[in-house]
Design goal:
A three-stranded parallel beta sheet has the order 1-2-3, with helices on both faces. It is α/β, with parallel strands linked by helices. It is globular. β2, α3 and β3 form a beta-alpha-beta unit.
């Protein structure tokens, strides 16, 4: 296996001695992350873009992905390379349940190294405290 100047392997980014220790204590090997290379498609499969009905953000993202050759999936797709959820209009805690409902059913259909993109609004730009708190709460979905 090739190593760079720091002695780390080029496939896992882990020093061989550390990898041996991790194996001895029973830690799993990390999944190699897919990295985009020139000439490859942006995503290795379809992307699902979802948001509230009439969402200009979701429409713009869908159009942009399609222009770049990404296949757009329906909610029934068996395998997804990415899920994009427009939550920029969420202003109440109840609307966070809609975000949850839009995202969770698709988690098991993501490819290895699949992407989840959650679009929100900058909380500080909103005048209503409840709307600010709701947008700030979106970070909880990403943890």
């Amino acid at each position: 296996m090739a190593q760079d100047s720091t002695g780390t392997s080029d496939s896992t980014g882990v020093h061989p001695a550390l990898r041996a220790v991790a194996t001895q204590v029973g830690l799993p090997s990390p999944t190699p992350l897919r990295r985009w290379q020139p000439g490859e498609p942006i995503l290795p499969g379809p992307a699902l873009v979802t948001g509230p009905d009439g969402s200009r953000v979701a429409t713009t993202i869908s159009e942009s992905l399609a222009e770049r050759g990404v296949d757009l999936a329906t909610a029934e797709a068996a395998q997804l390379a990415a899920v994009v959820v427009d939550a920029s209009a969420a202003r109440t805690p109840a609307e966070l349940a809609d975000v949850h409902a839009a995202l969770v059913p698709h988690l098991k259909t993501l490819h290895a190294c699949g992407r989840i993109v959650l679009i929100g609004t900058q909380p500080g730009s909103l005048p209503d405290p409840q709307a600010r708190a709701t947008q700030h709460a979106l970070t909880g979905f990403t943890r």
